[in-house]
């Protein structure tokens, strides 16, 4: 079998996300499923670079713009520069010279030989000066739009900077146990039997933090619907609602369905839950996950516009 060029695979994934506007998690999952024979190291490299470029896009573009004098570049060259700068700044195991050589090779693979010198020159310049890079603008430093920064600032007060630092840390994956199908203890045992590290949340006993796995889709307790991916903050809705007698509930911006599933798990079986989102693609994602978790009593609907009543 011919060896897969993992950097070429990263490039194609980034083009799908940025140019074709595909969802990043779907692109990553499809690629890892198609190239399931990849080594664990290659799979990890692929996921880390794609996630990293998406997460640091504002910062990467700001750096490239400075060294490119603000000139427009072809989308494929832009993605090669983004993924290369990310590797040089945030992946210490990869020597800069190797990153630059691979970037030039990608340009050649795309039959843009006339731009090899351009890419080589920019990346060598960034490599030689990367210790001097400074980001006075918080939006660039944390690769986050001003609108989002302002919302975080208004809601975190003195913990503003600490919160921003937290967002850029590589953390664990959080899952909530579907207690209608399995106990938390049994799920922990199943995960640990697969050498997956598990830590229980101190805020919600149904939430587990897991690390040490290769691919999410291969985790049996998730495939079987015994638990599903959700963050701790979303799970706290159960603490707010308590055991109120709720007959109907609307979850707006519901995809991929975590809060809706939690409600379905906690509320009476006669209750109806309407899970809504702004696009058919997102609603379809809720529908697919609902089938996995066998929450067929959930009512899906598509709501393109909604009004918040105050």
Structural write-up:
By secondary structure, the protein is α/β, with parallel strands linked by helices. Helices cover 53% and strands 9% of the residues. It is built from 16 helices and seven strands. Strand 6, helix 16 and strand 7 form a beta-alpha-beta unit. The radius of gyration is 22 Å and the shape is globular. The C terminus is likely disordered.
Largest sheet: 4 strands, antiparallel
The largest beta-sheet arranges its strands as 2-3-1-4
Determine Rg (CA atoms, Å): 22 Å
The secondary-structure element order is: HHHHHHHHHHEHEEHEHHEHEHE
Number of strands: 7
Mean pLDDT: 85
Tell me the fraction of residues in β-strands, as a range: 5-15%
Counting DSSP H or I runs of 4 or more residues, the number of helices is 16
The level of helicity is 40-55%
How would you name the oligomeric state of the polypeptide chains in this document?
Answer: single chain
Structural class by SSE content: alpha/beta
Instruction: Name the shape in a single word.
Output: globular
Q: Uncertain segments of ≥5 residues (pLDDT<50)?
A: 295-310
Distance between the termini: 61 Å
Task: Provide a quick synopsis of the model.
With 310 residues, this protein is α/β, with parallel strands linked by helices. It has helices at residues 6-18, 24-34, 40-55, 57-67, 75-90, 96-109, 116-129, 138-141, 146-156, 160-167, 184-193, 220-223, 232-235, 237-241, 258-266, 280-292; strands at 173-177, 197-200, 207-211, 227-229, 248-251, 272-275, 299-300. The chain has 16 helices and seven strands.
